Amino acid sequence: MKDKFKIMLDEQTYTSKPTDAGGIVNRIVKNPTDLTIEELILAIEQGRTVLPAFLGHAYNGKIRKSKECWSSQQLVFLDFDNESEVFDPLPEKPNNKKKIKDIHMTYDEAIEHFKDIALFLYKSFSCTDDHPKLRVVIALDRVVYNRDIIRNIFTRFKQLYPYIDSKCLEESRLFYGGTDAYRFDFDNRLNVDQFLEQDEGKKGLHYILSYSNNIPPFCLPSIQGKSIQTTDNNIEYIINRDVSYLQSVIKPVAISLSQYDLYEYLYKIDFSTLLGVNHKHCCMYHNDNSPSALIKVKEDTGDYMYHCFGCGFSGNIITCIEKMFEDRQIEIRRGQVVELLKEIYMIDDQLSVWGEQQKRELESNIALLLSRELEELEPNLHKLIVRNVPNLVALHNVAIQNITSENYTDNKGNVLFFKDLKSITVALGKSSVDKVAKDINFYTYLGMLNKINPKELPKSLRKKAVEFQLKNHYKYQKNFYSFPSYTISVRRSAEQRAVEWKEKGYTKKELTREMIYRGHGEEVADTVYPQMKGEKFSETNVAVADELVKIGLSLIEQKGWTTEKEIQENLHLHWKGQSIYKAGMIKTIRAEFLESYGLVKKKLNKELSERLGIDVPTNGKGNPCYPQIIYKAD
């Protein structure tokens, strides 16, 4: 099996038992890793420390080695130290205990005992022939996202092996590396439901183990024969897409809706029953010991919204389900969430073929752009694109009209559409091809539209692109685009880009590949301008940029501040149009210049003028002027 398991892994290697546990903890919580079984064995034999769960929930703003940060787990490590504790009273410590050798499982016995159950076992650094210390690694048949279930699994193992180290059965336990890994069948998996099953008519692990027939009764509460989580919510059922169970709880009434009515219908569903919570409850998106979340109707819209006063998360029914999957590192598209909700609530809109599904995905994006969500949850992005929403919607409709076949997708499965800029300009009802091109670059920078590198196109499309280029004598090939699903992660990234756009002082009119390259690096520049990938800047641009930087630094060194205009005036070029060229170049290098040298661009004010000793200039009428100045950040 080539399954990968999500764990936390230390990057440091050791040849003996580590003595710097604090350093390991600081490193390991920052390093979630996906490993195959063989990769995990290699890491352990290199002496690297493993935490077999994924820590994905922040606690008090940080990822820590604590049960509160536990997010999911599929691997269980059993620690057979073959020791027991006995009382060893001391005068100053009457309750003192010490560990003594107490052999319950030798290395050879473990190999025989776990051959049909475990993935592998290995010796700890302190293992000796006369005192075996080993760890057995077992994989569950599915990833567990509910902490109560993993605790029940730990309890069951403790019942089976009362002599194992109890500390190994903790959600955030560290396991140091070791030696001599013994590999079993990598297809071995422990069936969670059978393992936790009390019914004596079903074979669980306690039937496989020869000496475990007298295990104390243990079970989970059951509904309709299903083992369920002990917390009062339906997260596990939603994540596992158990539509039949969810329908048994919700009891939906079948309904047929047009595609245009679908989203308004979903927004107005009281989804507390779906989530399995009261309107006021402990938040399901962070560790919450007292009710801090609620679901209520917005008076102005009639929409049901989830909001937590603890972690600050807000969302409607679609966003809430989407976040459940995202928190568990399960990839899901926004349109797939809508399809799941349609199935649960028995909503029929007669869409089934691939092209219709792609159309639905694009319409989901349109619905988001036209909804209230962006304004409420991504305010910087909303403020930046609010005037562009009609154009973005129109561009989505261009994509919908150009859906052809399932083969025309990008490498992430998003439907491709291809139009030359002139045709797109006409389709958008615009007159300026140049302005439309700048709009498209703007959307691509935000990550709300993808430009496709011609080299990544299917052969048939690449051929069409080349033919179109040659026929029209264009420098670049025909443009191909795709829209990503506007998921939480895409919107979050776009929100950050919107903040950076404002901080760096970008405008659509000034945006160029060189500006993006200097401000964000080559990878981002190639994303926004894929057909220009690998192109070098002109020698003139490089020389002029370097000179502008030298002049700016020199002026700041001399008097503590300068302005863009002053920098330009101190650079003398000898060709027609130099003023426009210099103004463009200073804008191109602005973000890189400020960030590289720790500078700030800010409008002059009284406090700044006094601190930097600047005489506030006046205009022809004697009124003070407050230009934008550049100076060294504090």
Walk me through this protein's architecture:
The longest helix has 21 residues, at 539-559. This protein folds into four domains: 5-208, no CATH class; 231-350, DNA Primase, Chain A, CATH 3.90.580.10; 352-535, no CATH class; 539-632, Arc Repressor Mutant, subunit A (Orthogonal Bundle). The strands form eight sheets. The protein has a five-stranded antiparallel sheet with strand order 4-5-9-8-10. The chain has a four-stranded antiparallel sheet with strand order 14-15-16-17. It is built from 26 helices and 24 strands. With 634 residues, it is α+β, with helices and mostly antiparallel strands. This is Zinc finger CHC2-type domain-containing protein. It holds the Pfam family Zn_ribbon_DnaG. Residues 279-342 form the Zinc finger CHC2-type domain.
